[in-house]
From TrEMBL:
Signal sequence region: none
Species assigned in the record: Ramlibacter tataouinensis (strain ATCC BAA-407 / DSM 14655 / LMG 21543 / TTB310)
MF-aspect GO terms: DNA binding; DNA-binding transcription factor activity
Protein name: Transcriptional regulator, MarR family-like protein
An annotated GO BP: response to stress
Superkingdom: Bacteria
């Protein structure tokens, strides 16, 4: 037989302060903002079966057809395992094609298929709507400031990242 839970003592002022410090930490707030961003995106793009990571991959591949798989990982700031997982999902749906690069058989080139390009086009409006929803609580000035601060933070601390971010050239 289960016993009823024993009520715990009321949290002390020091534990309240500890929680307040946790909830004000940039890492906590950035993780929470990312969760909300992903949820808003998936709410808008859910009918298309597209995640933020997949949308990012399709977008980069549209701009750089035939990009090496490793280059795609760097362009998105993903590690090799993450980009492989994303690509396998896209490939299973017939949205991308992978194959050895002609110049270097060790590198895997990735390209959008016609279906991948069509889905990316279809996703533009809902993705933009998700962006507007996410930024709606902020004024235009605050939006610009937030983006500037996030770019400064990520740019200055890039060498601390587990996966490098290197936008493709050209």
């Amino acid at each position: 037989m289960l016993r009823p839970a024993v009520p715990t003592a009321r949290p002390s002022a020091s534990s309240d302060a500890t929680l307040a410090r946790l909830y004000a930490r940039p890492g906590f707030l950035l993780r929470r903002a990312h969760q909300i961003s992903a949820a808003v995106f998936e709410d808008e793009c859910g009918a298309l079966g597209l995640t933020p990571a997949q949308f990012g991959a399709l977008t980069v591949l549209k701009a750089h057809p035939g990009l090496a798989q490793a280059g795609l990982a760097r362009a998105l700031g993903f590690d090799k395992v993450t980009v492989l997982r994303v690509l396998r999902g896209l490939e299973a749906r017939g949205l991308v094609a992978r194959g050895a690069k002609a110049a270097d058989r060790r590198h895997v080139a990735v390209s959008l298929t016609a279906d991948g390009l069509a889905l990316l086009r279809q996703a533009q409006r809902p993705a933009e709507k998700a962006y507007r929803r996410l930024m709606a609580p902020l004024t235009a000035e605050q939006q610009a400031q937030l983006l500037d601060l996030l770019q400064r933070l990520t740019g200055e601390l890039e060498d601390q990242a587990r996966a490098s971010f290197v936008p493709p050239a050209g």
